[in-house]
Amino acid sequence: MTREVKGRDPDLVVWGESSVGADLGTRPDLAERLGALSGEVGAPVLVNVDARSEDASGAPGIYKSSVLVGPDGPTGDRYDKMRLVPFGEYIPARSLLGWATSVGRAAGEDRLRGNAPVVMTLPGDGTQAPGPRLGPLVCFESAFPDMSRRLTRDGAQVLVAQSATSSFQESWAPEQHASLAALRAAESGRPMVHATLTGVSAVYAAGGERVGAPLSTERSTAAVYDVPLATGSTLYVRFGDWAVYASVALLAVLGAAGGLRVLRRPAPGRAGPPARTTRESSRRPVR
């Protein structure tokens, strides 16, 4: 499918999550083939490797990694996924909950976490000026606004999420997952590409509006989008979650004030016996 964009002058080709099942460092033949594909279409290819690796940012093990491949092979730009899906990619407290692998599709072996976000710089257009800078995220990570904020503050001009929702094809999950990219774009003021191996692929401009038509779960094709770059900074990028924290603090203060008013209110006393009153009359004068 990647060859479908040949001749359309793309700046970048994005593959979905787990699109490569072998570490390119141990498979030079595969790295060479991907490099040749990049040269054929005239653009670097951002693949996603789900494999055991010794070249990752942490200890040797299985990682999910965004790897940029150019005509000469991997460029050296690599991002290892930092926030993993519980049970899907690792078992929390495996010594206690490892039995989950026998009753579902839980991870048989834990994936390992990367150490830091990475901003990648694409090749320029033949001049000395570098190309756009992209900030990759992997699947589940598009749900975390602090990660896209960090990438934007580090200089990313385009956010890219590589995903696969094969376990949820017949549900509302693929559409909902793709829509998270619109939120991240609006928050960060940067366009975002959501590319899936299985699921809904979509592109959003810096304001969160959709660019072009999305590719639904029924489509098996490649598409080219003109992604408008943006500059500047949003309030969220500058100040982060202050609005959320301020709202929580305000609610806490209001709740405490209401609680103090209740505590200071005098408790109702026990009702005493009814008072006796007299009324003077001509027949029964008051004594």
From TrEMBL:
Record bears the keyword S-adenosyl-L-methionine: no
Molecular function (Gene Ontology), one example: N-acyltransferase activity
Spans annotated as Disordered: 264-287
Span of domain CN hydrolase: 1-229
Biased composition (Basic and acidic residues): 277-287
Biased composition (Low complexity): 264-276
A GO cellular-component term linked to this record: plasma membrane
Keywords: Acyltransferase, Cell membrane, Lipoprotein, Membrane, Transferase, Transmembrane, Transmembrane helix
TM annotation in the entry: 242-263
GO BP field: lipoprotein biosynthetic process
InterPro entries reported for this sequence: Apolipo_AcylTrfase (IPR004563), C-N_Hydrolase (IPR003010), C-N_Hydrolase_sf (IPR036526)
Membrane topology designation: Multi-pass membrane protein
A UniProt-annotated Pfam family: CN_hydrolase
Protein name: Apolipoprotein N-acyltransferase
